[in-house]
Amino acid sequence: MKTAEKKIPKKPVIAVAQIRYFDTAESHNVAKIKHFITAAAKSGADIICFPESCVHKYDILKLDNDLVREICLSCKENNIWAIVTDTFESNGVSYKMSLLINRKGVIKGNYKKINLYDDYTKKGKKTFVFKTDFAKIGIAICWDLAFPEVFSKMKKAGAEIIFCPSYWCYEYTAHHKDHKKREKKLLKSLVLSRAFENLCFVVLANPVLHKPGLVPYSAISCPHYIMKEISDKEGLIVKRINLGEIKKFEELYPNKKPIK
């Protein structure tokens, strides 16, 4: 009689690109996005997440735009998933939207930002969990990070990793001193809190830009600690995670349930 084989937990490799925005004469970041896609693939990453508003400096793009096609082709050439976020037009309406692109260069889904913050776009209404070849993933965008229920809905739907492309800025009136330092601590605590509340992995991606109030901090977090982070500079962080740890945490905290 054959014994059942022990199921080996998936250990996907996650990449986050904290890129510097619009530091060339181009009005878009596509060349840089493609560069980081290639770099992430060479590092063995299964997916790379870019920050919010990462594609074009001015334009609202359609999903079949040539720039989007270039990014999709790069994913196909490098056999990697990617999340890119900007203001996209869908059915004549503008949304702050994340596109999930698969290894074949096909847009497999999108998420429209629900909790807007000075965004002149229409708000989204639904959260989604996408089944990939390495994990079940969810996507939130920037200010969504401050709303636990967004993450809870995705956890309940089976999300193992939740990505949060961001363009995180702070209000100067919120801090009377040490503005950037304090906001970075707040941002870090939000990432870790969402991971612990839901016993999942949370991935944050922010840009680097010479803009007052912007916090260039990105991180990959498990429920108990920040696994990898980058701050105040352009760069790529890559981390292998063990999805089997989710079950371990759920057994460790058996009465812990996602927030309703």
Plain-language structure description:
The chain is of the alpha/beta class and 260 residues long. It has a single domain, classed as Carbon-nitrogen hydrolase (Nitrilase/N-carbamoyl-D-aminoacid amidohydrolase). Helix content is 25%, strand content 27%. It has five helices and 13 strands. The strands form two sheets. Strands 1, 2, 3, 4, 5, 6 and 13 form a seven-stranded mixed β-sheet that branches. It has a six-stranded mixed β-sheet with strand order 7-8-9-10-11-12, covered by helices on one side. A hairpin with a 5-residue loop joins strand 5 and strand 6. Helix 1 runs parallel beside helix 2.
- CATH arch. level architecture: 4-Layer Sandwich
Number of helices: 5
- Would you tell me the overall average pLDDT? 92
CATH superfamily: Carbon-nitrogen hydrolase
Which short descriptors sum up this protein?
alpha/beta, single chain, disordered N terminus, seven-stranded mixed β-sheet, Nitrilase/N-carbamoyl-D-aminoacid amidohydrolase, 25% helix, six-stranded mixed β-sheet, 260 residues
